[in-house]
Design brief:
The longest helix is centred in the last third of the chain and has 118 residues, at about 250-370. This protein has three helices and six strands, in the order E-E-E-H-H-E-E-E-H. It is rod-shaped and about 180 Å long. It has helices spanning about 55-150, 155-210, 250-370, and strands at about 25-30, 30-35, 50-55, 230, 235-240, 245-250. The strands form two sheets. A three-stranded antiparallel β-sheet has the order 2-1-3. The chain has a three-stranded antiparallel β-sheet with strand order 4-5-6.
Length: about 375
């Protein structure tokens, strides 16, 4: 560009054009203002050395750029407000998930307590069953001993019958004891496996409580490109106006402020995008963990129901077995009573016959003596 403001590479034969009218302004604290004129009502001062003259195209380009930056800032502020709303929603979701995790932990503890109670009940039922079996066995042995003592004086046939009956009773008692012990061992194994699974579930919930941390804020901003070309005390900017490309220089304060604002916005944008990604991953992990805990709670409840059903079946079996043993003992006592009655009748009959024979012998002996 020459001194007249026309481009130096204009075609030959073109009439030279006059330069653009400059707009004179002064740099002050609140920005650039138009140079003093009677209409501005500003008193002239001795700071005329700070007055500069710039072409209209430069000033208009800077004004247009400032308007575009203002629009971009408004859009960014709207985006920030939207992201803040999303962050608030994500925080509310995280709070709900935390409360749900606490409820699941309480349910797991309750299930563990119920499992412990059921294990205690099963152990007590097993002990009662063993005690009752031992007691029944002792009473049966005592009854058999009494029967043996009462029938030792009887005939060999009665003794053989009682011995065979004793053998059968002992076999039945041994079979009943073996069955009871095998069922008790199987129940104890199932209870122990349920206890181990409950302990594993409790340790997983405790680990989840330790891994839980504070949620980060989420924000999303658009990246802004930082202009280049700063050198020395001036900044070179290319501006297209009127179909011609002109190069102008303007103060560094405006450009440096814009560059600084761009850098800050770019850093905030990158940081907020990183926090958004981290929060999404955290929410996904917590959702998966909540599903696993719900499945474990349902499985624990089903296991508790199974244990309750097994306990009820064990109690019913114990009652049936006690009734069967009682009926068998009563039948044994009735058989013993019948045998004793038969033996006493036979003894009385034999004694009567012996008395008759003795009387006849005495009668026959008395005439012979006479």
């Amino acid at each position: 560009m020459d001194a007249s403001g026309d481009p130096s590479d204009r075609p030959a034969g073109d009439r030279p054009r006059s330069g653009l009218p400059p707009i004179k302004y002064q740099i002050r604290q609140n920005g650039a203002v138009v140079r003093w004129s009677p209409a501005s009502r500003l008193r002239q001062c001795e700071c005329r050395s700070n007055y500069y003259a710039y072409p209209n195209a430069l000033v208009l380009a800077v004004a247009k750029e400032r308007e575009e930056l203002a629009d971009d800032n408004a859009k960014l502020e709207a985006g920030v407000a939207k992201l803040e709303a999303e962050v608030a929603q994500v925080r509310a979701t995280n709070e709900k998930q935390a409360s749900r995790i606490k409820e699941l932990e309480y349910d797991v503890l309750e299930v563990e307590d119920r499992v412990d109670d059921l294990c205690d009940q099963l152990r007590q039922a097993r002990e009662r069953e063993l005690k009752r079996a031992r007691k029944v066995r002792g009473r049966a042995e005592a009854i058999l001993n009494l029967c043996d003592v009462g029938l030792e004086e009887d005939s060999d046939e009665a003794s053989r019958f009682i011995q065979g009956l004793n053998v059968e009773i002992q076999k039945d008692l041994a079979a009943a004891q073996i069955t009871a012990f095998s069922e008790a061992v199987e129940k104890a194994q199932r209870v122990e496996s349920a206890r181990l699974q409950a302990e594993v579930l409790h340790s997983g919930v405790a680990k989840l409580g330790e891994d839980r941390g504070e949620m980060l804020r989420v924000a999303r901003l658009q990246h802004l490109a930082v202009p280049t070309g700063i050198a020395g005390s001036q900044t070179t900017t290319k501006i297209t106006a009127g179909g011609n490309r002109h190069i102008y220089t303007y103060p560094n304060e405006v450009v440096l402020a814009i560059v600084k604002e761009w850098e800050v916005l770019a850093k905030d944008n990158a940081r907020l995008e990183t926090e958004v990604n981290q929060l999404k991953e955290t929410i996904k992990t917590q959702t998966d963990r909540i599903k696993e805990l719900e499945y474990d709670v349902v499985e624990g409840r089903e296991r508790v129901d199974d244990l309750c059903a097994q306990l009820g079946e064990a109690q019913e079996c114990m009652i049936k077995r006690a009734m069967n043993v009682r009926n068998r003992v009563e039948s044994i006592l009735n058989i013993c009573d019948d045998l004793l009655l038969d033996v006493s009748d036979e003894t009385f009959y034999i004694g009567g016959e012996v008395g008759v024979e003795l009387a006849q012998a005495e009668r026959s002996a008395s005439p012979a003596a006479d």
